[in-house]
Specification:
Blueprint: E1 4-8, H1 13-26, E2 33-41, H2 42-51, H3 55-75, E3 79-87, H4 89-99, E4 104-108, H5 114-120, H6 123-130, E5 135-138
Helix pairs in contact: 1-3, 4-6
């Protein structure tokens, strides 16, 4: 099975569903490593920084979005790591997945910003077109 799985997480319900699929796939092998990747979008980062009291609060708020997925990983006794990237989600995920030679990238079909998705195209669509590894898009 896949040993190196990248799970794109943004705190949305879609990313939690994607996490459930990543758990199913990773549970099939004994030595699967799941990397939870959250991309701090530059467009949203400015607003987050303005509303945060400091860097610790900002980091805490970002990590809070990952809690449901981390709890899912722990409850299924999967080995995982967390990586927070900065930039535009689609290109950042693709660049990281290609650089790290990920074997499978799991992503939800939609994230938090539906207006942006309608105008610019979905993050998952951008990832599918440009990633060098298999991509599982979870509805």
């Amino acid at each position: 099975m896949y040993k190196k799985v990248l799970l794109a997480v943004d705190g949305s319900e879609h990313s939690v569903r994607a996490a459930n699929e990543a758990v199913k796939i990773s549970s099939l092998g004994n030595d699967s490593q799941v990397e939870l990747v959250y991309v701090a979008d530059f467009g949203k980062s400015k607003s987050e920084v303005l509303h945060a009291q400091g860097q610790e609060e900002l980091d805490f708020a970002r990590r809070n979005r990952l809690l449901p997925v981390e709890e899912l990983m722990k409850s299924n006794q999967l080995t995982y790591t967390v990586k927070i990237l900065h930039g535009e989600p689609g290109p950042a995920l693709v660049e990281y997945a290609n650089k790290e030679k990920v074997e499978l990238l799991v992503i939800g079909s939609r994230g938090l910003n539906t207006l942006q998705e309608m105008v610019l195209g979905s993050v998952s669509h951008k990832v599918v077109k440009r990633a060098n590894c298999p991509v599982l898009v979870v509805k």
